[in-house]
Automatic annotation (TrEMBL):
The lineage of its organism: Bacteria, Bacillati, Actinomycetota, Actinomycetes, Kitasatosporales. Coiled coil: none annotated. Residues 118-127 have a biased composition (Acidic residues). InterPro entries: YceD (IPR003772). Residues 103-127, 195-217 are annotated as: Disordered. It holds the Pfam family YceD. Residues 105-117 have a biased composition (Basic and acidic residues). This is YceD family protein. It comes from the Bacteria.
Length: 217
């Protein structure tokens, strides 16, 4: 299946193994900075913006059945704090290791295991990655690694207190912020009591409308 899709060597996530060669034990280190592909991360939660730089550090090792790729990707992801909804940025470092098999090695493997468990083998094949014409595509590996390295519930700071349930203010900006519903009611009652003591007669006699009229003119 993977063999049907031709790899494009101009794709920055496609790597060439010709220089590495096929002698088992050969090693090659590669550094490459690429533009992040679309949808790299957890959609609508936190992701590396399309086109943002992704630094790749790779170690290719030639083994009998293919190329073992070990590496690290570094990038900056952007998202939103799940508690206070502020935008946030996060440095991501994602490690990965993946085997890219030579297609002929796959066929040998198939021939050998046909008699054993076909079903299990076919399932494994779905996930297998291959070297095709000496090229391999790192993109699926990068995607999986970045997703695993990102938090499902990103927060702007470990102890982000979130938003005030009463008024929605961001509590980290205003640590002393609080509402005491009981106090507010008390204050209202005390205010009412005060106005009743001080100005009960004035209110009853309709002094307030008069004041309002004066202020408006
Ligand atoms: Zn927050
Ligand atoms: Zn509040």
């Amino acid at each position: 299946m993977a063999l049907n899709a031709r790899l494009d060597h101009r794709n920055p996530l496609v790597f060439d193994t010709h220089e590495l060669g096929r002698r088992p034990g050969a090693l090659q280190r590669l550094n490459r900075t690429i533009d992040a592909p679309k949808d790299l991360g957890l959609k609508d939660v936190i992701e590396v913006p399309e086109g943002a730089p992704v630094e790749l550090e790779l170690r290719l090792e030639s083994v009998m059945e293919g190329v073992l790729v070990t590496g690290t990707a570094r990038a900056q992801a952007e998202g939103e704090c799940v508690r206070c909804l502020e935008p946030l940025q996060l440095d991501v470092e994602a490690d990965f290791q993946e085997m890219f098999s030579y297609p002929e090695a796959d066929e040998r493997g198939r021939a050998k295991s046909r008699s054993d468990e076909d079903a299990a083998d076919d399932e494994d094949d779905e996930d297998r990655l291959f070297v095709e014409d000496g090229l391999f595509d790192l993109e699926p590996v990068l995607r999986d690694a970045v997703v695993l390295a990102l938090p499902m519930q990103p927060v702007c700071q470990e102890d982000c207190p979130g938003l005030c349930a009463e008024c929605g203010v961001r509590l980290a900006d205003d640590p002393d912020h609080h509402h005491d519903a009981v106090d507010i009611r008390w204050a209202a009652l005390q205010g009412l009591a005060g106005s009743l003591e001080d100005g009960e007669k004035d209110e009853m006699s309709g002094a307030e409308p008069g004041v309002d009229e004066k202020q408006e003119k």
